[in-house]
Design a protein that fits this description.
The protein is an alpha+beta fold. The protein is built from 18 helices and 23 strands. The strands form six sheets. A seven-stranded antiparallel β-sheet has the order 3-22-21-17-16-11-10, covered by helices on one side. It has a seven-stranded antiparallel β-sheet with strand order 9-6-5-13-12-4-23, covered by helices on one side. Strands 18-19-20 form a three-stranded mixed β-sheet. The longest helix is centred in the middle third of the chain and has 18 residues.
């Protein structure tokens, strides 16, 4: 690996797996899954931008430096809290189903144009900047443009995904110029550049929605329809970002503010926390040492996560939403708890990233964005960006024509006495499990964020070729042997599928979190060892 890239004489940390340093500051902190994206956020904060500016600059940079995890053709959703007023707002820029129906939609469509959804990333970015930000589009896109034009080093995470999909990448002329600059797949440490993506970002900077709804939409729809898709330019014209009230719950005296449906990970998170609140976890001990705690966490998670998804948008059914978030419903669920969850719809494959930022004024942003499928899953590319395979979420709950997909994203903010103490989120198929375990670590067991991200965890089950989709759990090998032995024995007796995986497995998510001490105004963060991210203070 060559030397770390630098800005002036200020080197950027290398993108690497493994433990990362704890970072603390009083004037703003950002944490993301790539050091260049974190640096983009930090620089914006140092120049006087706010948390929204910093988060959006980081997200735009991730389009370039993490193309295996997100894309301009996917979705972007964020939770924003204004420190001055205390107002929290959720902006849903997730993907839509096309206006043209998709009868008989199956998993086979996910590798074709039929599985490409209507994107919301750029409309959400544009509206978030206008609603919450203070800086120009040009300033927010500058780090992304620099990375696309000047290049950046391939890291092991990007290489691993690209290696597994090099047949699709190598079949595309657009991707050969990026990933095969010397005739072979670029290896870790090698610099890659993205001139097509840079041109697209320049046009978005200079022409904004005119270019997006015009030439970009035309190129996008032509590519999709040539591969059997049904999206038209009218889909782009009729797409609308949703501005919503977040859902709220409580846990051990703290208030949980999280994503509302149809981004229903927030409802799942609060539902699981409500169940766990009925048990004195502190008496049992942390899941790293107490099999009973680990088993309860798995049961609470599986109850909410693997339940058959609701067939309608809960924002249109407030009584049902109130029931799902209630303490009484949680007590009933605990009483009727069954270990083996019922078969549900197939959870989509991982392919998501998260950004958490708090600025000097105390404004907070928790932002999740994604192409919502495995990297490069359909081999389709347009204007320098892969086309999202996010139609995988249509298998979870098929939206009506032109309706928003139901996605289990869970950006969240935890408050005590009206002041934020945790700002967090996670990517991956295991994101709800990830956030649940880490919040319990922080709230019930008083772990530092550094201790929490390094602790072993369980995850949701991804697709496996031999058995397809089946509810169950991954278990990281980092748990104590006696904990694993007892929990796996219990799971076997209850017919719950488990699989042991390596310590710090990427499929168990990536906890991008900030903890705040209201008394000292100190903000702390530590990037997760499971991916190649970084945290920095302004």
């Amino acid at each position: 690996m060559s030397a770390p890239s630098s800005v002036g004489n200020d080197p950027v940390a290398p993108a690497r797996y493994g433990p990362k340093p704890l970072v603390a500051g009083e004037h703003g902190v950002a944490v993301t899954s790539h050091p260049l994206a974190t640096r983009a956020a930090r620089d914006v904060l140092r120049e006087g931008g706010n948390a929204a500016d910093a988060a959006l600059a980081a997200a735009a940079a991730q389009l370039v430096v993490e193309p295996h995890m997100t894309s301009l053709t996917g979705g972007l959703s964020l939770l924003h809290r204004d420190a001055r007023t205390g107002a929290a707002t959720y902006l849903n820029g997730n993907v839509n189903a096309p206006l043209t129906p998709l009868p008989d939609f199956t998993g086979a469509d996910l590798t074709r144009g039929r599985g490409v959804p209507v994107p919301g990333w750029w409309p959400a970015f544009d509206q978030a900047r206008r609603r919450f930000g203070t800086l120009s589009t040009g300033r927010l896109l500058a780090p992304a443009l620099a990375a696309a034009t000047d290049g950046f080093e391939v890291n092991p995470f990007l290489y691993g995904i690209a290696y597994g999909e090099q047949a699709r990448l190598g079949a595309s002329a657009q991707m050969r110029e990026v990933f095969f600059p010397e005739g072979h797949l670029a290896v870790p440490g090698q610099t890659i550049r993205q001139p097509r993506a840079a041109r697209t970002l320049l046009r978005l900077r200079d022409e904004g929605m005119d270019y997006y709804l015009g030439e970009f939409a035309h190129a996008f729809t032509q590519t999709v329809r040539a591969d059997g898709g049904v999206i038209t330019e009218r889909d782009f014209e009729e797409y609308r970002v949703r501005v919503q009230e977040p859902v709220r719950g409580t846990y051990r005296g703290a208030e949980i503010v999280a994503s509302p449906p149809p981004d229903d990970g927030g409802v799942q998170l609060i539902g699981a926390l409500n169940m766990l609140e009925t048990v004195d976890l502190a008496r049992l001990g942390p899941s790293t040492a107490a099999p009973e705690t680990l088993g309860l966490l798995i049961q609470a998670h599986n109850t909410v996560y693997y339940a058959p998804p609701l067939r309608r948008d809960l924002t249109e059914d407030p009584e049902r939403l109130e029931t799902l978030l209630s303490k009484e419903y949680a007590r009933t669920r605990m009483t009727l708890l069954e270990t083996a969850p019922p078969p549900g719809a197939a959870p989509p494959s991982p392919g998501t990233i998260h950004v958490s930022v708090v600025d000097a004024a105390g404004d907070a942003v928790s932002l999740t964005h994604s192409h919502m499928a495995s990297g490069f899953v359909n081999g389709l590319f347009c204007e320098g960006f892969q086309l999202s395979g996010g139609g995988s979420f249509f298998q979870r709950v098929m939206p009506g024509p032109g309706e928003r997909a139901s996605v289990y994203l869970a950006p969240n903010i935890v408050l005590r006495d009206g002041q934020p103490v945790i700002v967090s989120g996670s990517p991956s198929v295991s994101l709800v499990a990830n956030i649940l375990q880490n919040l319990v670590n922080l709230i019930d067991f008083g772990m530092s964020v550094e201790e929490s991200v390094q602790a072993p965890r369980f995850g949701a089950r991804p697709h496996t070729p031999e058995r397809g989709w089946q509810p169950g759990n991954l278990l990281e090998a980092g748990f104590a042997p006696e904990v694993l032995r007892e929990v796996r024995g219990w799971a076997d007796r209850e017919r719950l599928w488990t699989r042991l995986v390596n310590p710090w497995n990427a499929l168990t998510g990536n906890f991008e979190a900030l903890t705040l001490d209201p008394a000292t105004r100190t903000i702390r963060a530590c990037a997760d060892p499971r991916r190649v991210g970084a945290a920095e203070a302004a």
